Amino acid sequence: xxxxxxxxxxxxxxxxxxxxxxxxxxxxxxxxxxxxxxxxxxxxxxxxxxxxxxxxxxxxxxxxxxxxxxxxxxxxxxxxxxxxxxxxxxxxxxxxxxxxxxxxxxxxxxxxxxxxxxxxxxxxxxxxxxxxxxxxxxxxxxxxxxxxxxxxxxxxxxxxxxxxxxxxxxxxxxxxxxxxxxxxxxxxxxxxxxxxxxxxxxxxxxxxxxxxxxxxxxxxxxxxxxxxxxxxxxxxxxxxxxxxxxxxxxxxxxxxxxxxxxxxxxxxxxxxxxxxxxxxxxxxxxxxxxxxxxxx
Length: 296
Known about the structure:
By secondary structure, this protein is an alpha/beta fold. The chain has one domain: Pyruvate Kinase, Chain: A, domain 1 (3-Layer(aba) Sandwich), CATH 3.40.1380.10. It has helices at residues 4-60, 91-106, 108-112, 123-131, 149-165, 196-204, 218-295, and strands at 76-81, 116-121, 136-140, 170-180, 183-192. Strand 4 and strand 5 form a beta hairpin. The longest helix is centred in the last third of the chain and has 78 residues, at 218-295.
């Protein structure tokens, strides 16, 4: 049985760990509230933007180069949104495994031919895919230290320009969608090419009897709104991922605290058992010594 000093040291170490995990849980909870507020503010805007774009596409036609539909998919880029920090359970690994499964099932021939590029957001995504020899063409480490719309827009604008030029024929975004504090939906969404048929179906079921008048004209407005719509797609994915990360970290730290408490209870039981055994041994030695003196 371990001696009393070792058990006391382990108990003290676990108590210190509990203080750290409790503090991290509180920090994650505060960040989660802010992240949820940003999502709540962004979702209606993104939804309305999609509605306006769908109405413009159905009315103005498809002359914009962003609306091109490649006859054959030759090169693919996937934007993977991870996190910069760990200690958030399976938040990153579950998404990365889904990405690898999707690549192996649908895009393995592109990867083998070197025609599948990855853009990673977050330190964890960068380290994971570079270590496994994926073709990471760009990475954004420390992205969530200063989360802002401008940086996100620059990423999407660069990808959109390459799509228009024909360097990429398909653009995918992989991220964790916030569902609740304890669960996330792992998604791999196709952002480009835009599914104009789906837009037209949505528009036909939403007030299509109203004839809007656009100024200067529908095509000009569509040309301005399409890049904004794509930027909002990535911005929403980043915000969803940020909220999911904080929720996952909050849950992970809460579980770690509870596990530490259980381990501390077990160690205190062992400590009491060891202490009782030591006291019993000392009493036995004293009694034996006293008996020996009496016999002498």
